[in-house]
Design goal:
- The structure is a single chain.
- By secondary structure, this protein is mainly α.
- 68% of the residues lie in helices and 0% in strands.
- It has helices spanning 2-9, 12-32, 49-53, 69-77, 80-84, 93-113, 116-133, 138-154, 157-160, 168-185, 196-200, 208-241, 245-264, 273-287.
- Helix 4 (69-77) runs antiparallel to helix 6 (93-113), helix 10 (168-185) crosses helix 12 and helix 12 (208-241) runs antiparallel to helix 13.
- The mean pLDDT is 75.
């Protein structure tokens, strides 16, 4: 079916390829000691004092909508599931090794961004993968949670700390409060699309749901959540319908990719084309179903 062909042999590999190129480029630049300046003239992003003490040279970023390290990290986050999918059936040992080779630079590049939200989203993706792959019971879920907490404990403090010298965590909380204030004042229409920064005079929301709610009101938030719901609904129906294990792995990877994007959007505004690109892929999968899912 068309939707499955697009998903399994087409566009998703573009993101994986871009993420690999970007990740390998960042790692190579650090290894050979390039000056902290990208091909478009961009330097490293701001860095917390704890990261500097740990020997981190700077936080990587790109340009345009990916100018911030947290947003740039999403390039790696949404690519992760398409590398992880090679770890299970029906893939051979050779392809599983290939999956590891794909995964390693993505994880290292994630660390180079220094993004707390990206790191937590990465941990969340692995947790969701384990839960879905092994049909984890409540007891095992608690065990997996303990393992993930151990990973967090072993991670560098600048990736897990909720406070820093720039006060970024507190600023986020302040902006979330501003978003609630916006929808309280105008619950139907919000303050208008793209007006969050103008309203606060400081920062954007650093949370996609809060920003959408504040700018477009409750109806806008409801429609946004509806798009997400239908995307997951289509993927769930496709997973149940197909018996092909390889196609199932693609469907699961796309679902995890969307979930990773949403986890990242808790900590940074990600109201960009990349999210709707993923939802469009989910819609293409839904279009190929023999029977459309009922809401």
């Amino acid at each position: 079916p068309l939707g499955m062909q697009v998903l399994s042999r087409g566009i998703v590999f573009i993101d994986l390829a871009i993420a690999q190129i970007a990740g390998l480029g960042v790692i190579l630049a650090d290894f050979v000691g390039f000056e902290p300046q990208g091909w478009a003239g961009q330097g490293f992003a701001w860095m917390d004092d704890e990261a500097a003490k740990a020997g981190v040279a700077g936080r990587t970023r790109w340009i345009n909508i990916f100018d911030g390290p947290g947003v740039f990290c999403v390039v790696y986050t949404i690519a992760l599931p398409f590398a992880v999918r090679y770890f299970g059936k029906p893939f051979t040992t050779g392809k599983r090794i290939f999956g590891v080779l794909l995964l390693a630079p993505l994880l290292l590049a994630t660390v180079y961004t220094g993004s707390r939200g990206g790191f937590l989203a990465t941990v969340g993706i692995f947790g969701l993968y384990l839960m879905s792959k092994f049909r984890i019971s409540l007891a095992r879920m608690v065990l997996v949670g303990g393992v993930l907490l151990a990973i967090l404990a072993l991670a560098p403090s600048y990736l897990t700390s909720t406070s820093d010298s720039h006060g970024s965590a507190q600023h986020r909380i302040d902006m979330w409060a501003e978003g609630v204030e916006m929808v309280t004042q105008n619950p139907v229409f919000g303050i208008g699309k793209g007006n969050f920064l103008r309203y606060t005079g400081k920062l954007i929301a650093h949370n996609s749901a809060v920003e959408i709610m504040g700018e477009t009101g409750i109806p806008g938030l409801f429609l946004w959540l509806g798009l997400i719901y239908m995307g997951f609904k289509n993927l769930y129906a496709a997973y149940r319908e197909t018996e092909d294990l390889e196609q199932r792995s693609f469907v699961m990877a796309l679902g995890l990719s969307i979930a990773g994007y949403l986890l990242s959007s808790i900590f940074v505004t990600l109201e960009y084309e990349t999210f709707y690109f993923l939802l469009a892929l989910a819609a293409a999968v839904g279009h190929s179903l023999s029977a459309r899912p009922i809401c």
